[in-house]
Design a protein that fits this description.
Blueprint: E1 5-9, H1 16-31, E2 37-41, H2 47-54, E3 59-63, H3 80-84, E4 89-92, H4 95-100, H5 105-117, E5 121-126, H6 130-134, H7 138-149, E6 160-163, H8 177-194, H9 197-202, E7 204-208, H10 216-220, E8 227-230, H11 237-253
Bound molecules: phosphoenolpyruvate.
Residues 9, 11, 164, 169-170, 208-211, 229-233 line the site of phosphoenolpyruvate.
């Protein structure tokens, strides 16, 4: 049985005081929802404050990025060890990192290795761009992203995968539940080939891309989809709560 998960990626939004306010708005409601892992990923500068606020609750904390070196002269970067001290999860390979910061295969792989080494649980993002989707290359792209991201890695430590078609992120144009279910099924089969069937069956694979309270049910109802990585809608307490609540209810019925 896979415990569903909803992870909120706040991206580069909220000052520290806004982050505190947002957590205060959603903390109680989130804590009361069972049968789903609730993860919030605020900006680095708010991690310590948010960690204090969610102490003793069932809400989990994640970071949005990490550097691969252990420490040293890398001005402005944050190491895996620094994060392991603060949070449980880290998003790696988000398409915005791939697109704006040129983070591709080898870098993503190095980040994965470094994060796993210190016990962080990666939320690995993969997904095809619009032109790749239109050219029928989705399968090829996600297969290659999986292969390169996981190269040489045998200890997965609760790795979560987020399938995020790039054309659906922040655009308001979500994929369909059916399309995503199919691609996530394919990702699971690939994990079975790279590792084994049991690992693939136990791995949580989320959908991400313009998830809202209005469309989460379409995704949560799909058997292969274990929840969502939510960007814009995770910044609105009421909407995020609704997304988590619907996921819990739908997955509990099954
Ligand atoms: C994301 O940040 O991973 C994401 C899916 O964003 P949005 O929900 O805003 O499309």
């Amino acid at each position: 049985m896979r415990v569903p998960m909803i992870a909120g990626n706040w991206k580069m939004n909220t000052t520290v005081s806004e982050a505190i306010e947002l957590v205060n708005e959603m903390r109680r409601g989130l804590d009361q929802i069972g049968n789903v892992d609730k993860v919030i990923c605020p900006p680095f500068i708010s991690l310590a404050a948010v960690r204090e606020l969610i102490k003793g609750s069932s809400i989990k904390l994640g970071a949005q990025n990490v550097y691969f070196a252990e420490k040293g002269a890398f001005t402005g970067e944050i190491s895996p060890l620094m994060l392991a001290d603060l949070c449980e999860f880290v998003i790696i390979g988000h398409s915005e990192r791939r697109q704006y910061f040129n983070e591709r295969g080898e870098i993503v792989n190095k980040k994965m290795v470094a994060a796993l080494k210190v016990g962080l649980k990666p939320i690995l993002c993969i997904g095809e761009r619009l032109e790749e989707n239109e050219a029928g290359k989705t399968e090829e792209v996600v297969t290659e992203q999986l292969r390169s991201s996981l190269a040489g890695i045998d200890y997965l430590n609760g790795l979560v995968i987020a399938y995020e078609p790039v054309w659906a992120i922040g655009t308001g144009k979500a994929a369909t539940g059916e399309q995503s279910n199919e691609t996530i099924g394919l990702i699971r089969r690939n994990i079975a080939k790279l590792y084994d069937k049991e690992i693939a069956q136990g791995m949580r694979i989320l959908y991400g891309g313009s998830v809202t309270a209005g469309n989460i049910a379409e995704f949560a109802q799909q058997p292969e989809i274990d929840g969502g990585l939510v960007g814009g809608a995770s910044l609105k307490a009421t909407e995020f709560l609704s997304i988590v609540k619907q996921t819990s209810e739908i997955k509990t019925v099954k």
